[in-house]
Amino acid sequence: MNKIRNEEVLRKFGLRIKQLRQERGMSQDDLAIACDVEKTQIYRIEGGKINTTISTLHALAEAFELSLEQLLHDV
């Protein structure tokens, strides 16, 4: 049976979000505002603590001006 929560994928995705945010000179507050989510959610995503929703993935992609495919690249 496959695990629903893959810790390695969550960790890699979190690092990807943090890298993209820092490359764009954004704070966690900036990204949270751009995505219309709480700052704690960004913190938890970057830390690989939560399995985020499709809606949040879409908002992150828009905030970074990327497609979903580009956002998930190398995750």
UniProtKB/TrEMBL annotation:
A Gene Ontology cellular-component term: cytosol
Which intervals hold domain HTH cro/C1-type? 17-71
UniProt-recorded Gene Ontology molecular function terms: DNA binding; DNA-binding transcription factor activity
Specify the protein name. Helix-turn-helix domain-containing protein
> Can the keyword Thylakoid be found in this entry's annotation?
no
* Listed SUPFAM superfamilies: lambda repressor-like DNA-binding domains
The protein's matches in PANTHER family, at most eight in alphabetical order, are given as: HTH-TYPE TRANSCRIPTIONAL REGULATOR, METHYLPHOSPHONATE SYNTHASE
Q: Which Pfam families match?
A: HTH_31 (PF13560)
Q: Which UniProt keywords apply?
A: DNA-binding
Against InterPro entries, the record matches this protein to: Cro/C1-type_HTH (IPR001387), Lambda_DNA-bd_dom_sf (IPR010982), TransReg_Diox_bact_type (IPR050807)
